[in-house]
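Dear colleague,

Thank you for sharing your sequence with our group. We've completed the structure prediction you requested, and as agreed, I am returning the results in plain text so they can be pasted directly into your records. Please verify that the sequence below matches your submission; if there's any discrepancy, let me know and we will rerun it promptly.
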Amino acid sequence: MLIDNHGRTINYLRLAVTDRCNLRCNYCMPSEGIDFAKNDNLLTIDELIKVSRILVDQGIDKIRITGGEPFVRKDVMVLLRELSKMPRLNDISVTTNATLIGPHIDELKELGIKNVNVSLDSINRETFERITRRKQFDTVHNNLIRLITEGFNVRINFIVLEGQNEQDIIPILDVMKHYEVSVRFLEEMPFNGGSKNFGFIKWNYHAIIEHIRKTYPDFKKLESPKTSTSINYQIEGHKGTFGVIPSFSRTFCGSCNRLRVTATGDVITCLYGKPKANLRDILRETKSGESVSNTIIDVIGKRAKTGFEAQKEHAKTVFNNSMTSIGG
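Please find the predicted structure tokens below.
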């Protein structure tokens, strides 16, 4: 079992398989993209499998595959097949933009991987294309509906962006009220590849809740797991639920159970902090699983208490990072 220096049990790994993405969302990176990692700097599938096994042996029982866009990587299903064979892994999930998942839906179901988070920041075609800078609305919409109707546990992640998509908060709830889906509204974060600097946001979680309350005054708060980043609610008459994630306000740090490994092997113990070690280098230099295990124990023992504390490590450069390179 992994327990950090603040007494928090770490059992959840967010494992990035690529830093590449086929969309160019304006809150994530500049229109020209970022300097993506060279292929030989990425963890190989065998290395990703090895890292996963080591961490599962250490007590990780939930792994979320992220990117970039994970299905940009053509061999990602090899990793997912191996993860599905690990008996101590209770939860395998995927975060995707749903542009490329279509051909893999049947196999994901066969493997029992049915927890899928879909990043969707607008239910309106024009707004979607303006934010993503790509014309993929129909593909995303069709794959989303297919995931829902085929019984996947779907959560929609909607980042509320001032001046861009706040007008779609209520419409996406109206569309999704017919489905057993959780629509989760996230505060905007500073990881945009240096395209914007900000010290505060208009659409914090309080503002999002009050905006929804004007249309739906009678929603009720739901019980959520202690480690949940989402504060969840139910609107009367809606099949699904909605939630808000205070990703910029960082109100959930006290129960954080997460560890991140980027596509290049960097270990990140807090989204707002700097990488603490590189597992790719350790694996390639030592070939030792024990060295990886010891490194994980070491960095877990030195975690920042909060995201605000972690951000002090690079307060002047935190805005230069892109979410696609951090690992989602």
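Summary note from our side: The radius of gyration is 19 Å.

Kind regards,
the structure core
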